[in-house]
Design brief:
Blueprint (H helix, E strand, L loop, with lengths): L3 H13 L2 E19 L12 E2 L1 E14 L2 E43 L4 E42 L1 E3 L2 E14 L5 E3 L8 E3 L4 E14 L3 E12 L4 E2 L3 E18 L1
Antiparallel strand pairs: 1-3, 1-13, 2-4, 3-4, 4-5, 5-7, 6-7, 7-10, 8-9, 10-11, 11-13, 12-13
């Protein structure tokens, strides 16, 4: 019969073993602008004309369980942005040339034959140039979307309750912009609309909670989370724009041998 020492050693070896998992997931997220605006009096209050954006996300994660600690890294696809409904003006300046009356020039002519004087009044004119402002109203209703490929890095701790696990996690996302994403904004009064490109790389932090139901080698899970940009997505003299996102993912996981 095996000794107690052999059983204890076998249990410790089992507890110390690293478990490897792969997860596939998809879900929805809601992103809202975290917007800092310049104090300049010409700054347009963009945040009053913007609303949150719902979009989809999906990805794949590798996870390793060391005792009860949970480490993860993966690849994900997501979108952030906002709905915009701007009503702004654009001021255009044009030069107008005008002819103005200056004075009458009086000219007298003496006719020796008739010994009479003839008096003529000749008007004098000049030209002047004035600058006039023409203001047009612009109504713009659209969606600004930025697409990202992210590398999520996560650290957590597992609480196992029979066939369920609760896993709170913290981590960071390394996000790289995809494609030619352009945002359109009304940054200043009377300046119309401007287009801005996002940063090529953005760093974010994330908080999440995974609730899973375990089976033999696989599991299903839901994962509510919060994500916030540390570095700005849009940066100019008028605005510094980051995004806060919250959402929920659901997926399936498989324990590797």
């Amino acid at each position: 019969e095996p000794s107690e020492m052999m059983l204890a050693g076998g249990n410790r070896e089992k507890e110390d073993k690293i478990n490897h998992e792969i997860q596939l997931y998809g879900g929805l997220l809601n992103s809202s602008s975290n917007l800092n605006l310049s104090n300049d009096s010409s700054t347009f209050p963009m945040n009053t004309s913007e609303s949150n954006l719902w979009s989809s996300s999906f990805g794949i994660m590798y996870r390793a369980k060391i005792k009860q600690f949970d480490l993860g890294a993966g690849l994900s696809w997501m979108k952030t942005g906002e709905k915009v409904n701007y009503s702004t003006d654009i001021a255009q300046y044009t030069d107008v040339d005008s002819v103005i009356f200056i004075a009458w020039q009086v000219d007298s002519i003496y006719n020796q034959n008739t010994q009479t004087w003839t008096v003529d009044s000749i008007p004098q004119f000049d030209t002047t140039t004035t600058t006039e402002i023409i203001t047009d109203t612009i109504l713009y209703n659209n969606i600004n979307k930025y697409t990202w490929i992210s590398i999520p890095l996560r650290f957590g701790y597992r609480f196992d309750i029979k066939k369920f696990s609760i896993i709170p996690r913290v981590g960071i996302d390394l996000s790289f912009v995809m494609g030619s994403n352009i945002g359109t904004y009304a940054e200043q009064y009377n300046q119309g609309l401007v287009q801005k490109s996002p940063s090529q790389f953005v760093l974010s932090y994330a908080l999440q909670l995974e609730i899973r139901r375990n089976f033999e080698r696989w599991h299903v899970f839901v994962n509510p989370y919060f994500r916030s940009n540390v570095t700005p997505v849009i940066s100019s003299a008028i605005q510094t724009r980051r995004y806060n996102s919250w959402g929920i993912n659901a997926g399936i996981g498989l324990k590797l041998k």
